[in-house]
Design goal:
Layout (H helix, E strand, L loop, with lengths): L1 H7 L5 H9 L4 E2 L8 E2 L3 E3 L2 E3 L3 H21 L8 H22 L1 H24 L12 H30 L8 H46 L5 H38 L3
């Protein structure tokens, strides 16, 4: 709600503040009415490391997760700390309802640490983007594409290690099919292997920017039609803002569940 009210009170700067949440750039203004902090690329020999607003968000995200989980689970305690007690239900939910449900316990235990990191990284990135004057890193297709590429590589490597190079591709065709139908099914499944991973990136990216554009459109009506429209558009924008929090949580769940399912499919003939 605070995000939308900040936008609504921004007058002509409302659109710029909204776009600040989803657009990348080489400056960041964490405090209003303060000169934006310039961000410069780092060059090490022939390698240039881009430092942008979304990169800063990723670094803040990583630092936050390290601090929180080290504080919560860094020491063995008979009685869990307050932070650990708050996180435990979510940790068990990821393990039992997402990873184990998609992969089974035997395979899921091997991937559990990876999916813990993936889930909390996406969830925190999504929620950080809801904070005024911060930015949604998962609203960047390059970032969601990198996450999807990581899952694609995991699918290929895990499937080939389990079934072998030939067995991995043979696994795409159900046994017992006539050769012409088998070839047809294989030609469908092969690009589907790439499409599934691509859809992971596009779904997360699109859902994280969609809410901002809807809010932008609703608040823009105030300036395009009449200030009185704010009686309707502002409450609707607040509702969409609250809905974005739910979407942020759901998208972390969906990305983690589908990733676990796709990796499980690569190793199982069933």
């Amino acid at each position: 709600m605070s995000v939308t009210m900040c936008y609504a009170s921004g007058g002509e700067d409302a659109g710029e503040q909204l776009m600040h949440h989803i657009l990348d750039g080489h400056s960041w203004q964490p405090i209003p009415a303060v000169t934006p902090i310039p961000l410069h690329n780092i060059t090490i020999g022939p390698v240039t490391i881009p430092i942008t607003r979304h990169v800063i968000m990723l670094l803040i995200n990583a630092l936050l997760l390290i601090v929180v989980f080290t504080t919560a689970f860094g020491k063995k305690r008979i009685v869990p700390s307050g932070i650990a007690s708050a996180l435990e239900p979510l940790v068990f939910f990821v393990r039992d309802d997402l990873v184990y449900a998609a992969m089974g316990k035997e395979l899921g235990e091997k991937w559990l640490t990876f999916f813990y990191t993936l889930f909390f990284f996406i969830l925190t990135s999504n929620l950080i983007g809801m904070i005024p004057f911060f930015s949604t890193a998962t609203g960047n297709l390059s970032i969601t594409g990198a996450l999807a590429l990581m899952i694609f590589i995991a699918i290929i490597v895990t499937g080939m290690r389990k079934n072998g190079f030939i067995g991995f591709f043979k696994n795409m065709v159900p046994p017992g099919l006539p050769l012409p139908i088998g070839i047809f099914v294989f030609m469908i499944e092969l690009p589907g292997l790439i499409i599934r991973s691509g859809v992971l990136a596009i779904r997360l990216f699109a859902n994280m920017i969609a809410g901002h554009f809807v809010i932008y459109s609703l608040l823009l009506l105030i300036f395009l039609i009449h200030p009185f429209v704010s009686v309707i558009s502002v409450p609707m924008a607040v509702f969409i803002d609250l809905l974005e929090v739910l979407v942020a949580i759901i998208q972390a769940i969906v990305f983690t569940t589908l990733s676990a399912l796709f990796i499980s499919m690569a190793v199982s003939h069933d």
